[in-house]
Amino acid sequence: MPTIGIYSTVEELAQGVLRGEVRAIARAITLVESRSEARLELLERLFPHTGHAFKVGITGAPGAGKSTLTYQLIPHFKAQGYRVGVLAVDPTSPFSGGAILGDRVRFDETLDGVYIRSLASRGSIGGLSRGVPPAIRVLEAAGFNLILIETVGAGQLQVDVRFVADTVILVLVPESGDVIQAMKAGIIEIADIYVVNKADREGASRMRIDLRNALELGGKPKGWNPPILLTEAIHGKGIDELAKFIHEHKQYQQQSGDWDKRRLQQIDWELRSLIHDALEQQARNVASQLFSPSALQNVLQRTENPYPILRAWLASQPN
Amino acid sequence: MPTIGIYSTVEELAQGVLRGEVRAIARAITLVESRSEARLELLERLFPHTGHAFKVGITGAPGAGKSTLTYQLIPHFKAQGYRVGVLAVDPTSPFSGGAILGDRVRFDETLDGVYIRSLASRGSIGGLSRGVPPAIRVLEAAGFNLILIETVGAGQLQVDVRFVADTVILVLVPESGDVIQAMKAGIIEIADIYVVNKADREGASRMRIDLRNALELGGKPKGWNPPILLTEAIHGKGIDELAKFIHEHKQYQQQSGDWDKRRLQQIDWELRSLIHDALEQQARNVASQLFSPSALQNVLQRTENPYPILRAWLASQPN
């Protein structure tokens, strides 16, 4: 198992993760992102030590300021005693290799003790890397209890962050197009907290009003009423308030019973995505078995009709 | 088969499509978007009459002006004798229900004879609705020979439009973030033609230069060298040139042999996505068979470890 590196068995790797060794965490995440069968062995071993972290999803278009917000939130969570991990699924995120806040170095005081990992967005369902749920389990087993998940997306594709995060923050900027467009794209209803970042720019207050109106189109929500905050992440403005609302949302969920309901959905999604993953590999295999390169040529020339072949295959499948 | 409507058999529906009846086309696309087994019957029947259309993909972020460009291109294609169909996968596209170019009515002269259909982006692979390839076949069978496919996407998710379109146009706007970000997101290499729309805004020329530099980082391309055009779609500026380059790209592909190579990839992708689709339905069934609601509760309480169950299921699967 080359992905395990210096750890000669899955058990040794698991031990390293449980001791919180950075090298073991890195190897373990690489393993669970892969399709190696050993990943399930590792997850089985780590499972009893997982499930306890508070997971905060931060989503929005590239350039909305998600990374800066994430960066600014970290000291708040540290001050509350959390051990913080960051998973960046956005390929344009500074956490995935660029510079945060301009020229600051990568390992400054804020980031000290924070484990940061970027995940491939390839092989994703709905824009969310399938590596996210197992990577969360690895971080939990290593003792991280607050995990920030930064994801980029557009339209429906952002929706899936709900299935991994306990609290979802949608970051908008005044320029990001009007609220009506966002509604049509189905991204309006997904968040627990809305942030209009770069609030010094024109149109921020207007956007907040439009957003509030849009959210209340169907009447005032029962239960949690998502706040809409104005921030200027680059100057640290509005971050205290955001951290406060994140904490309140957690408390609200725990008191209302939403916490368990949502976590049940998360587990369901995680297991389904593992099954989906296995079946996707099968799809590749089935396709190349059903259609050889020369058969594909014939389909291209229309001398072979592919649909009877597909129908026969489908008929041979369970239900 | 309720989705067939007034057509009592698949054969009747197919006949209606082949006669170009708008009502039959609408029913047929609804059917092929569905998971009904009858969709493969219909596709089998239509298959001999398909494969001839020139398919142009127009992709970019919401608000970049894709719909306006599409709208402006239509008269050019009509003048060249094409019968034009439009498939809009962007949920924010005016073609999906809003108003094109402000207040113009939906069925104006430009759109006369043009078949427009919006497709759900749900159930998508990589942001591309799986309904696209079969909907293309329906339009081809109905006699449309130029199909414009408008898709929204971010990052990797835009890439899949390559697998349905012969020519891909990526629409950027000067504000859409810098070229470096787009490169990181992997969207730079996908297009055959680049359009910097809203070129009257600041930064358009600069963006063109940056884009050219980015594209030539790995040396000048062999073969087709993607042009970068400046347009102001809303004023019709630059559309002639764009139409000219679309035509040139088609000719280039036909002369170079890229045409067939690319169409082979398209067929491969279409067949794989149909197989994938069937397997995905199975994933849902498998998940609920493996994990009952009470088993999920136990997983949530960590009294049941789900991974041994998944491993056993995987071991029971073909390869």
How does this structure look, described?
2 copies of one chain form a homodimer. Chain A has helices at about 10-20, 20-35, 40-45, 65-80, 130-140, 180-185, 205-215, 240-255, 260-290, 295-300, 305-315; strands at about 55-60, 85-90, 115-120, 125, 130, 145-150, 165-170, 195, 230. Chain A has about 325 residues and is of the alpha/beta class. The first copy, chain A, has a 7-stranded parallel β-sheet with strand order 3-2-6-1-7-8-9, sandwiched between helices. A two-stranded antiparallel ribbon of chain A has the order 4-5. The longest helix of chain A is centred in the last third of the chain and has 33 residues, at about 260-290. Chain A is globular, with a radius of gyration of 22 Å. Mean pLDDT of chain A is about 85; it is low at about 95-105 and about 125. At the A-B interface, helix 3, helix 9, helix 10 and helix 11 of A face helix 3, helix 9, helix 10 and helix 11 of B.
Summarize the structure.
The structure is a homodimer of 319-residue chains. Chain A is 44% helix and 13% strand.
Measured as a percent range, the helix fraction of chain A is 40-55%
Largest interface (CB < 8 Å)? A-B, 71 and 71 residues
Structural class of chain A: alpha/beta
Q: Report the strand count of chain A.
A: 9
Tell me the span between the first and last alpha carbons of chain A. Answer: 36 Å
Largest sheet of chain A: 7 strands, parallel
Task: Flag low-confidence runs of chain A.
Answer: 97-107, 123-127
Number of helices of chain A: 11
Q: Which range does the strand content of chain A fall in?
A: 5-15%
The rounded Rg of chain A comes to 22 Å
